[in-house]
Amino acid sequence: MAEKYSTTRRLRKWRKREQKISSHLEEKMQSLSNIGFYKDIHENIELVKKVLGASDDLVVREFSIGAKGELDAALIYIDGLTESQTINDFVLKSLMFETRHGDPNVVVPNSELHEKYMRFALTIGEVKSVSQLKDGIQAVLSGDGILILDRWEKVIIPNLKGWEKRGIQEPNTESVVRGPRDGFAETLRVNSAQIRRRLQDPDLRLKSMTVGKRTNTNIAILYIEGVANADLVTEVEQRIQDIEIDGALESGYIEQLIEDSHWSPFPQIQNTERPDKATASLLEGRVVIIVDGTPFVLIAPTTFTQFYQSPEDYYERFLIATLIRFIRIISMFIALLLPSLYIAFSSFHPEMIPSKLVIAMAAGRSTVPFPSIVEALLMEATMEILREASVRLPGPIGPTIGIVGALVVGQAAVQAGIVSPIMVIVVALTTIGSFASPSYSAAIALRMLRFPIALIAAIFGLYGIMLAVIVIVIHLSSLKSFGVPYLTPFSPRRFLDMKDSLIRVPLYWMKKRPIFLQTEESLRMETDWSRSTKDEGDRENEQP
Amino acid sequence: MRVIVRMSNHNQNKSFILSSSQVMSLITSTIIGVGVLTLPRTVTEKAHQSGWISVLIGGMISLAITWMIMKLSQRFHGKNILSAGESVLGSKKNKWLGKVFAFPIAFIFMIYWILMTAGVARTFGEVVVTAVLVKTPLEVTVGTMLFVAFLMVTYDMEVMARVNEILLPIIIIPVLLIAVLSFQSAYFYRLLPLFPLDWIAVFKGVLAGVFGYQGYELMTLIMGNIQSERKEIRRAAMFGIAIPMLVYTLIVIAGTAAFGYEELKNLMWPTLELVKTTEVPGLILERIESAFLGVWVAAVFTTTANIYFAVCYLIKQLLGLKHHRYVAIVMLPALYYLAMWPRNVHLLFEYLTYASYIGFISSLGIPLFLLVIAMIRKQGEKQKGGQPS
Lengths: 544, 389
Description:
The complex is a heterodimer. By secondary structure, chain A is an alpha+beta fold. Chain A has helices at 6-21, 23-33, 41-52, 84-98, 110-120, 133-142, 188-198, 230-241, 251-258, 275-284, 318-347, 355-365, 372-392, 397-415, 421-435, 440-478, 529-542; strands spanning 58-65, 71-78, 127-130, 146-149, 155-158, 204-211, 217-224, 270-272, 287-291, 297-300, 480-481, 484-485.
């Protein structure tokens, strides 16, 4: 009973510690939050300058507006975060030129005049006015800039955001043969728009929040109202609100701070670079978390099925999709168990291997001076080093080094008699198997776990492997992701959800959303598709 | 966290409710354990060629006991054998009276479960050491098995149910495969003559048959966490016995047909010998007994860990502790010591038989006793019009 409260308790504990560290920053922001803007423009400019320090990229453009330039104004923004064309054409030009035609003799009460300028002269889509200094500073830092008008206690925040960003490219980590080629980018708005483009649903909700006292990273929680479980949404929101940290640079920060269990090697929140996958998750009733500054989007809750499910499964026809899923599951087991099975067979149970093969294996191993566990660890370590190196190497060299390294090192190691040829096959299969998983962060868990299992296999043989598997099963059974048991739908077993687990049944059989997500609306299809298409076919046949 | 509480049917006040497939998995995987390795011998020793009939009858008896426990559970919703015993034997005025009278009930089950946990771990350790890991000391195999079981016991019942649910196919499929594959070396005339049935021999074998099903007493513990008013839950519990019935009958038939009862007497682990005679089609693996034992670890693990859990849970309830985890820590060295206590396999089997007698009598007698008393005192009867709470 105790562990289900652990997350809250942990957050609270951690929050206490965090408070001490950031007290300086807190004091500064605390003092800011109570200050409003002055009436006088120069005092306001001084105030903003004082808070932001003497940064050289801070631009303060002072100018006058009105028919005779009777009203002083100033635009403050940070160079590089704003779009200069917008500033020139729609802020400065509009205010300075358009207001000249006004009748200077018409006396308008001051506050109304300012409102009028905002409503009338600023030809910009998104404009708002604030009176707190804190909000103004925030706007400058986020790339909006503030427009200060004289004799007014408010400032105007026009949307001036515009910076250099990477275009939409094909995602690197999750390639598919069939399916859309676009991936998420680094900007939150671009990412949320990609989901909006796919999901033109009035019930799609986007809630914004910021995380990080210093980075003020924007985070958006997306879900479909009326589909996603309302409790789930509040839980995700609550957990993100509880985060207190100075900066969250990538969605990995958020993932680690809101996951249920830290010590588990298994990812409890899924990440993806693919908008189609994120959209499909939304449709299933999950919650998507977009973090500004990274193309990796989080999906919660998630289950063990993420180890072998790919968006492609739903685009291919179901027989092929099921077959490919089986292949992924087999490769998952290969990645986890093959080296340890080799060790167990060769050192404890050689009688199990067919006799011709065992002779060949013995011949191959005759020159090898090490026991098979050393041999395996040696090759596995080499493989991991090669893999890591090929990731770090620039662009086109990476894969080349990987292939050359693997081939050359493997061949040379066999010839030098350090490892047996079978071991090279085993290691190669294991490595390939671990990359067949559609989810990189899930595959990493398996890659990591195969080392302890290999060690246990070297001590206890098959018995040890089975014990290790049981320990993993115990651990997986105890895991939860946002209240959803990790092994769903295998345990708790739900036959209706099994339709999309090891196998993928035809789409028209999956009329309901996964039950374990406890969605508010469970039906995906109203009509019996198989029936109606068949009827139509019959009708077509009847027509001459 | 709030949602975890709300989203799973699992919160502070209401205890965790097992699903029907979990009930089935728990019962089946607890029953199938080390017993199946010796079952063909123990049954045919008494019942000769009709051993499989004894197994079937033993299964029927187990079914009847399960049905009785279910009846008891229907009277006392959300109560396991200890808390049901407290309310049956106690009076409303003096609650301590129930506690005093229920204590022997819990104590008998406790003793039996402790003996079983240690016995099962030791038996499996013996099998592993004699058949696969010849050079490994017995202490290590018994110790690792108990330790892994301990790891599971530190979690809640929810986790135990899930582990059983996941491991169930790994337990059933290999043994069914072995039973079917070993028919290639079977001579069915060894099962004859079927008639005239030697009823006395068959009934002598029934006791050995019933011992093979031991593990269903776990029902007395988990009856506090099931909705026994639902028909599919009751049916799942029956299925939980029916699956081992099928497996055992097939194994005994295969064993008798392959060796004949005369030869079975001389085999220490007849099922293991049966595995040795089978050939895998395609010859991917030349000899499969190591693989079989490897997979068999799961079956023994579920038996050991489930009964271990039951002991700890019962003691926790008896002493009013916060979590059974603390009991499990204390129990671990005791269980290990107890498991290593018999000097050899024959003594072990002897002790296990005594334990089985305690188990059979307690699992038959205690629920029956409680049910009768409850009927006499008219306790836990359904109120008219009201939903059973």
